[in-house]
TrEMBL record:
This is Heparanase-like protein 1. GO terms for cellular component: membrane; plant-type cell wall. Gene3D superfamilies: Glycosidases. Belongs to the glycosyl hydrolase 79 family. Pfam families: Glyco_hydro_79n (PF03662). GO terms for molecular function: beta-glucuronidase activity. Coiled coil: none annotated. It comes from Cuscuta campestris.
Amino acid sequence: MTFGLNGLLGRNKSKDDNALWVGDWDSQNARDLMEYTVSKGYKVDSYELGNELCGSRVGARVEADQYGKDMTTLKKVVEEIHPDPTTRPKVLGPGGFYDEKWFNTFLQTSGPNVVDGLTHHIYNLGSGDDKTLINKVQDPYYLDQVAQTFKDVSTGIQSFGPWTEAWVGEAGGAYNSGGKDVSHYFADGFWYLDQLGMTSTFNHKVYCRQALIGGNYALLNTTTFIPNPDYYGALLWNKLMGKIVLGVSHDSSPYLRAYAHCSRHGSGVAVLLINLSNSTTFEVYARDDLNLYPGNQASLQSVDNEPEREEYHLSPDGGNIQTDVVLLNGTPLKITREFDIPALNPKLVDLALPVTVQPDSIVFATLKGFRAPACA
């Protein structure tokens, strides 16, 4: 559990700028909350100071140097109330849209080992009522545009805050509660899983989805609480994709997105393939880059004593990407009579065959014996 703390307590509006809030943050309310959680034995993962107070802001804003000063105050309170570093909650911020100068100044002002997670928000698809939203989630060139933000955040951390980690603290794709004809349908998985893959390649450690319940971008249906398609995509990501990210490339169409990690469990590699095309089928083979690892080639046909690989094919029911029913290897994913999540079982495929990625589909594949040096 992460608590968002009121970042405006103790401040006043500037006389010269109605959006700017000035003065020191009052930490007493946060202190009271922490002492209460400790008295009850509650486990809190992290505390974040304010919401979207940085840069060009959404409503109120606070200058970066002042926010950095306040963050050091929060860190001291957390350390005082949680003296054991093994159970101490993390300190997060600023929880807003990326502004290079503001973020870098904040890191410099707060200083070493204060901020545990540098959080920024992503709504790169624009407004939820945009009529072209369904096209954006299928456009590889549009999806690529946000990569610069992830790169800049990572670069800023390397230069000004190597003690912290990059987090996407909030992301729903489209703002204003998402798009009613896209965000809770299968189509949204093109954007969502591509985001998980892309942020990982730029050394982001956490990705917080907006939202579990609420709005069109909810992972659960807001009335029935039945999982929407992105819920199952998230489950498979967490089941299969490990923490070590691998470099991956292909010489095919940009409508084929490819990401690879060391497997979460056991040896080998987990691969995510996303086909944004509604008409082209891709047949994919995998091999080590011979230029990077001479003499250490591994391919789908030459892994260690593993005659088959596991594949998880996600596709929309009836071929309609604007459906809330997702198929796993051709079978609809539905909660059981006991209201449990259905088993997410793979199909086994002969290694002599390529991974076939049908139009408008998403495939996870695990190559258990694939000899990637980083996964050794």
